[in-house]
Inverse folding.
């Protein structure tokens, strides 16, 4: 998911501009795009802002990073905040 969204975003932005906006080296963004490395949670949050991801895309990207299904991530977050798990 992240790879696809980042590749799509890089069609209209440069590695250097994305890297500058996120606060990392352009090679770091290149490694993310190639799937060689994964961004930290903080970097992923900044990257999601830079790419202007909608709520569903953010959930999917963060779920992928946490290696869980998007629905499971929502239940985990809800449970941490005292919300009743959705069925």
């Amino acid at each position: 998911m992240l790879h696809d969204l980042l590749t799509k975003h890089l069609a209209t932005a440069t590695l250097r501009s994305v890297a500058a906006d996120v606060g990392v080296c352009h090679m770091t963004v290149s490694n993310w795009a190639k799937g060689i490395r994964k961004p930290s949670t903080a970097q992923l949050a900044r990257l999601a802002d830079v790419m202007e991801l909608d709520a569903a895309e953010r959930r999917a990207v963060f779920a992928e990073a946490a290696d869980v299904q998007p629905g499971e991530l929502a239940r985990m977050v809800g449970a941490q905040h005292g919300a009743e798990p959705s069925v």
In short: The chain has a mean pLDDT of 82. The chain is about 65% helix and 0% strand. The helical segments are 2-9, 15-22, 26-34, 41-50, 55-66, 70-80.
